[in-house]
């Protein structure tokens, strides 16, 4: 198939509306003027400290070539911003669809269809030596035809460094509820960390929220290490099959050597329930407000919340925005918890220093070639 040439330079794109906001970026629906095509553009503030990971994200998105991974058409720098131009996924992410229309989670066949797409994407990444490291519903995009794509390679990492294949990494990154025990412990970890996050994502899609999402970040990490692995409950989750329960249990094994690879997991009987993109369209996309309308509603709600209480919002945290955590503070906190009573309590003050990465602030009306004002929070 002939490859289109997407132009570089902000003057070639008309930003139409905001459709998403992450911890480090704002995403817009836009028109590529020379090609008369709708695209999505992720705009990131170029923080000198984050240059390496930002460049890695753009590079990874340009190189991936798999139907279940979000690809970039092109990327370029404009002023102090990196623009990543990518295909527009008209239904947005699974998290937002769920929050607006399925607050208690999706039905099993929908979950199987979404997860099969994600797992195929992960299989490809792992095969090419990449770990995603931030698998969650907020990073699973859906197109108007029900196609599923895993996105956001902002914290992904290569196991090939300087040409050598490393079997593991030991950086502390990800989003607390979805983080594998070995990542929290800063032990060497590999592909299996994605399988843990995949299992947590399965529970998130089944219940409408990730396990432990009601707790503060440090407590989530503490419970991930100390409590029994989360799973589907025999009594309260009766609507789900045994096959689903077992598939999740296979992913949420604390010793990564006991976890299956993406390739092996794809053969699990649970994925026999997966259907076509048409099924996703019929079951979850019909009658859904547009991605832009949903984004506006969320922005308005968040701004309202910020006015009400100027502190880090637990709600934003529940949405699964990636956090940078001070590991030493965490360790001290865990030690104190064990000295107290071994059981973490939500009422205690969370000592974790949370720093959100640079955020691109938007103005409600975006005019052609007008960059919104920036804000560092
Ligand atoms: N190609 C796209 N088409 C439609 N919507 C998109 C697209 N890419 C991203 N979005 C929307 O924008 C949101 C934020 O994007 P993304 O997760 O890439 O940002 P981020 O800053 O890396 O987020 P975080 O670090 O908090 O996970 C997504 O959750 C999704 O709703």
UniProtKB/TrEMBL annotation:
Molecular function terms, GO-annotated: ATP binding; protein kinase activity; protein serine/threonine kinase activator activity
Give binding positions for ATP.
42
InterPro entries associated with the record: Kinase-like_dom_sf (IPR011009), Prot_kinase_dom (IPR000719), Protein_kinase_ATP_BS (IPR017441), STRAD_A/B-like (IPR047173)
One Pfam family per UniProt: Pkinase
Keyword annotations for this protein, in alphabetical order, are: ATP-binding, Nucleotide-binding
The Protein kinase domain covers 13-271
Highest taxon of the lineage? Eukaryota
| Family under the similarity heading | Belongs to the protein kinase superfamily. STE Ser/Thr protein kinase family. STE20 subfamily.
Give the protein's recorded name: Protein kinase domain-containing protein
